[in-house]
Amino acid sequence: METLSGHKYFRTKISASGALASILKLLDSQIRNIQGRGLKILYNLSFDIGICSQMLSLECIPKLVPFLEECSFRIETFVRY
């Protein structure tokens, strides 16, 4: 899903499937790799304004704050090799 979320066509498909709530649940994992993948998927999906509105309605911002405050997590998650 991480790869698909990077493509405009699939972003709307992912959103329409109702997967956004499940993706947000990945952030609750205690496994850092799973959290990172969830963040990458959300990052990719955030390029669609409609999906951003859905994220706001699901109140995902409070879930994102701890990850964005942790500098090392931001660097590991969003730097692409």
Task: Describe what you observe in this structure.
α3 (32-45) crosses α6. The chain has one domain (4-78). The protein has helices spanning 8-16, 20-26, 32-45, 49-57, 61-69, 71-78. The protein is built from six helices and no strands. The model has no long low-confidence stretch (mean pLDDT 86). It has 81 residues and is mainly α. Helices cover 69% and strands 0% of the residues.
State the end-to-end CA separation: 18 Å
Oligomeric description of these chains: single chain
Number of strands: 0
List the secondary-structure elements in sequence, H or E. Answer: HHHHHH
Radius of gyration: 12 Å
User: Which structural class best describes the helix and strand composition?
Assistant: mainly alpha
Number of DSSP helical runs: 6
- Unreliable runs, pLDDT <50, ≥5 residues? none
Shape: globular
Average of the residue pLDDT scores: 86
Helix coverage percent? 55-70%
As a percent range, the share of strand residues is under 5%
Keyword list:
globular, 6 helices, 81 residues, mainly alpha
Give the structure's gist in a few sentences.
The chain has 81 residues and is mainly α. It has six helices and no strands.
